[in-house]
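From the shared-data thread, chain only:
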Amino acid sequence: MVTGANSGLGRATATELARHGARVVLAVRDTAAGERAADGIRADCPGAALEVRRLDLASLASVRAFADAFLADHARCDLLVNNAGLVVLGPGGRTADGFELHFGTNHLGHFALTGLLLPVLAGRVVSLSSVTHKGKRLDLDGPHRPSVAYGISKLATTVFGLELDRRLRAAGSPVSSVVAHPGVTDTNLTPRAVAGRGWLVRQAGRLNPLLTQPLARGVLPQLYAATAPGVRGGQFFGPAGWREWRGPVTEVEPSDEARDPAVGRRLWTVSEKLTGVRFLP
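Structure, as tokens:
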């Protein structure tokens, strides 16, 4: 299962998994866009086994409905890639449940989804982090500038992936939790974030080729985390180059804040309270 699989890193991940014979669930907010993505994947990978299912991570009701429907149809999920994410550089927004938009979507939605699907998870959970998690503190009180709020949400994603690994191991679960980040990759995330902000769009278009790596390279850390033999729970993969912006896949280090077990416990308690989803004590 890949969240946000209709475009960017999610679609690239779904494509490569399908190419190698996996049956892939495309968990997407816009099912029409998901069906177009599925058609494109089938064109690249004839015979690809795909399902498109609606999932809006900014709505806990949608997350629960998605999980209920999936559990009714499937007894097993070998891989969950918590890929979907958003960054909004304009005025701050709120989720359907009233949470800050980045934190509610990028972290809380995936926290709830993972917990609800845990009964059928059988392999790995991959959580998609970002280099922007470094230098951030888990300050959930805000308000924060949107760019800071995004980095905090990705710190939360990283903390969650590492805390999930601790709890899975303590519970003796065969499931492993791994974290990855794509460096600075040329996807549609930045153009969407600056939509309607003409000068930013022009600057992003000029800088992208100089600062970013292509999608085909940026997707490799999460594919490695998802499929490489010998990957262990708690590992974190990203690009090997300068400041982890680009380059070949390597194991990288999370920030001190992200690896702190006390921060992990605090985030877990807050996430359970806000989502109403409790799992892995």
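Residues 55-275 form a domain with the Rossmann fold fold (CATH 3.40.50.720).
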